[in-house]
Design goal:
Chain lengths: 199, 199
């Protein structure tokens, strides 16, 4: 009785560690890999190693970066009085593509989710509070997703920050309810920033 | 305006080369990779390289193998008078798992498909004919998938081989029409081999 040759069994195991990829898909991808151009496979392997080795989270804002602190945190031409809070590094990219916001960012790396057992200590909230103690920040824009968890997280942050006299705003409902920031078009994002309201 | 850092942009490009993976999924996989265990990422990269480097197609039967000729072609205890023809290396694994067939294999690496412009010269048919000239083969079992292309390929092979006086059989309709061999359960495969009929 023949099993898959070891090299392909190993590759299937690796593909299966990726999210949303089960047995069948992993097998299909592994066999496809063997037929790929050798250069492409080598590059794929190098890119995996490089991404893991060269990318870090900024120790100030939590965004993904090659240098620490990141380019945005070290850019003194940016408005130091505003911090826009997002769930994921991808959301920073979406905001930057809009090319209309010039303040700083803070990446939570998640949202509060009682169902998944994620509390305030599981996301980057402590580091946000710490940044606010410097007194340069006048406004925090909470740009978590328009999902129930995103809204709850926004309310939690607002309650935490407002007593310190810092203005807390939330993106306007330019975002359609239930959608992710990542998929919003640029005009929707611009409207959402313009119409932000105090919490 | 900030773009994705180069290492993650490169990794997204590599993921996008895989079949069925578009922009959004590639981005999600790339960000996921950065959060993965470093050992897992290193192993993933090594497995990619090893699979591409150590696996080859058997020069006799076209099956995937670490050694050439493959273990099945060099196993003299196997029935040398029967060749079972399949579309893909995965199908050999499916047949071997059934543990009921002890002859040889031939992997076509595809099927005839006028729509995709695949003719007889694009799949391993010439090498099959060459193997039959040795006169040791008494029967060819055509185990292409029960799809229109698989059936057409089976008929083409039968027409080519029968004049040489070799028995050509096709798997019985234990296989449900329109399905792939890869997904069949072992009993269905056993029934299909038992009920094979001359073409």
């Amino acid at each position: 009785m023949q099993q898959y040759p070891q090299p392909i069994a190993n590759l299937i195991d690796s593909y299966k560690k990726l999210p949303g990829i089960g047995d069948k898909t992993a097998t299909r991808l592994a066999f496809y890999t063997i037929d790929m151009d050798e250069d492409d496979v080598t590059k794929f392997a190098q890119n995996l190693i490089a991404a893991k080795r060269d990318l870090h989270y900024c120790s100030i804002c939590g965004n993904i970066t090659e240098q620490d602190p990141c380019e945005i945190c070290t850019d003194k031409t940016r408005d130091q009085s505003t911090i826009l809070v997002v769930e994921q590094p991808k959301d920073v990219m979406s905001m930057e593509r809009m090319n209309d916001y010039h303040g700083l960012y803070h990446v939570l790396h998640g949202v509060l989710s009682p169902i998944e057992g994620l509390g305030p200590e599981d996301i980057n909230i402590t580091s946000l509070i710490k940044r606010l103690q410097k007194d340069t920040v006048k406004e925090v824009i909470v740009a978590t997703n328009a999902t129930p968890e995103g809204e709850a997280t926004a309310r939690y942050i607002a309650q935490l920050i407002k007593p310190a006299g810092i203005k807390v705003t939330r993106l306007a409902h330019g975002l359609s309810v239930g959608s992710d920031i990542e998929y919003a078009d640029e005009m929707t994002l611009i409207k959402a920033v313009e119409g932000r309201q105090e919490m």
